[in-house]
Amino acid sequence: MSTPETKPSPSLVACHPWHAPCELASQRVSASWLRLLRSRLRLGVTLIELMIVVVIMAVVVLAALPSLLQANNERDLAEASQDLAASIRAARFRAVSYNVATGIIVDADAEQVRMLVSPNNNCAGLANSKVVLDFTGTAIDIRETAGVTGQTICIRPSGQIADAFGQPWGGPPADNNGALRFAVSHTENTYLRARPVLLPFNGLARLGN
Question: Which pTM was predicted?
Fold first, then answer.
């Protein structure tokens, strides 16, 4: 009895470009990869990939944090020194504009700047102290020429500064530039250079070098 002839399995048939089985197999493989790619795109990123991105972002933020804090402290210090000079100039503007005496008290102990007003051009009539600048509870510290803190600096209608009795300023000596010197510093970042504020005898407060 003759045994029936067995046909080779399609998987064992040599695959040639001109054979139909080869072309069909290639199409099946391409379709499988396409379905896998589509499912991958629908799933999006995996949890591990997302965690890797988060870790990288955290490292970048931590590396930049000291520079950001430094820049923020420098900005606060610059704004505080500008505010101090502006508050003194505002008092001078009032004195000159309304022809009245105006007083300024830079109180380094209270971390405040107070303005006093007079009903006339007499420095002896200064009263009604009003806080115009307050650094209490902040990291800003005011330092002054020895002996100035708490003293009333009168700005006469001419714009020049005087003592509380209207006499030419005879209090603490001025610096080499002929001006009373204040300094604004940052208590939380001692590496930052203090910003000086100069008050010359003409009352035009300005930022120093």
Answer: 0.68
206-207 vs 140-144, strand pairing mode: unpaired
Query: Which range among 3-12, 38-47, 71-80 has the greatest average pLDDT?
Result: 71-80
